[in-house]
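Suppose you are handed only these lines of text.
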Amino acid sequence: MFEFVDPEIGFTSSVIRDPKRFVGRSDLIQSCMNALNAREGVIAVYGKRGVGKSSLVRQVQQMANGNYDIAQKAGLAHLIPRHPRRYYTVYYACDSNINNTDELIRRLCNDTDPEDGLLRLVPDAGKELSEFSRSDEASAGLDLKLIKWGVKGSDSQKYSSVVPNDTIQSFRNFVSGSVDANNRMWSKRDGVLILLDEFDVIGTKFGMGSLIKSLTSPTVKFGVCGIGADIGALIKDHKSVARLIEQGAIHVRPMSGDETRQIFTTATELFRGKVSFAKKVVEQIVELSEGLPYFAQLIGKSSVQYGNEVGSNNIDEKIFGEVLGKIREGKSFPNLEEQYQLAIGRGKERAMLLTLLAEQQGEATLYNDEVGRVVLQRTRTTAQGLGIEYIDQLMPRLVEERYGPALIKGEQRGHYEFADPVFRAYVKLRKLD
Ligand SMILES: Nc1ncnc2c1ncn2[C@@H]1O[C@H](COP(=O)(O)OP(=O)(O)OP(=O)(O)O)[C@@H](O)[C@H]1O
Ligand SMILES: [Mg+2]
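From them, the structure of the protein bound to adenosine-5'-triphosphate can be written out as follows.
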């Protein structure tokens, strides 16, 4: 009997917070666990766009709060310390309006988010905090949520520990004050963990390394996360923190086929068996999504959606064929489609060229980080064979910032890289109009 199901129950395109939804990444979880339990040190999570960095950072936050479900799930129960270090946690997503270190610290000191902001933890008369669980199940890890501001309100300038015109010192006071004051109220924790996501978009990254180094102590740990092929891309002066990052460098790569398969077993569990995917369909999705969990989640979601439309909870090959047809026509993923249209700019030839580039198989194997790199020269003959004559005139739009960019120029002449691996996977799938 068909039953209408909400696709979001099993699939999501958002960052994953709940350990129940998080699949695989056992080795990364292990590294994060070690880095968290080191007395001093910085965690640096980096990798390509959309591979699952923020979701991993949210799991780090869970563990910092003492919820080690994710480590259990990853089969690492025997490695969980008997008395894991526990932290008060701060999570902040940076944006490109932050130009330098001082601005970043000021933002942190003024972040009033009731679940993730630093200001919530700063002691102040009349402020009310309560414990809450970040996952569905109320297990060991409880974080603090702000339910009522103190008498002075939510402006950091009003706090007694503020040192006028010295953000860094105010920050230090806030952090040490937070640990001491909250330890008097709640079960004792070792320090504060400050997680900075989207760290790559900060204007001047220079100086971040030495700042983080100067602020890191046994009671303050930083975790930074962002797009980059290496730590150097994330923290320009990373050498100054090299010793601190040694243990905590965490490179998130595309998922293995097995991990992508687990997204579907997990989804089936979350749907409580109300939805099923044929084995062959899952295999097809594993291949099409190229280890990108975001793409796998999107395809899963639109399959369930389509199942609802045609009145079936069993996604078999026939139904999936139709789902694919819609994706290929550009009807399923509006964001990716918009990106696609912007990049090709009504140019039929440019669309063809982009597809040829997306299909180019590098020397690197699939599921590898190198997979997005392409060389124009290799596509030239094929393109000419298809009647595309002025290749060099079609290229500029594909690398121009305001049209995406779809591609980023490599160091060598004629070498490019797809800016977003998910977009590349989409272009491969997209039918030419
Ligand atoms: N371990 C995982 N298990 C299942 N799904 C995942 C996992 N990690 C990420 N995803 C899914 O992949 C997508 C991207 O995840 P996330 O936002 O964490 O990636 P990101 O690398 O931070 O992306 P961006 O570069 O855009 O910031 C989301 O749809 C998320 O649900
Ligand atoms: Mg992210």
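What can we learn from it? The domain at 26-252 is CATH 3.40.50 (Rossmann fold). Residues 12-16, 22-25, 49-55, 227, 263, 293-294, 297 surround adenosine-5'-triphosphate (ligand 1) (CB under 6 Å).
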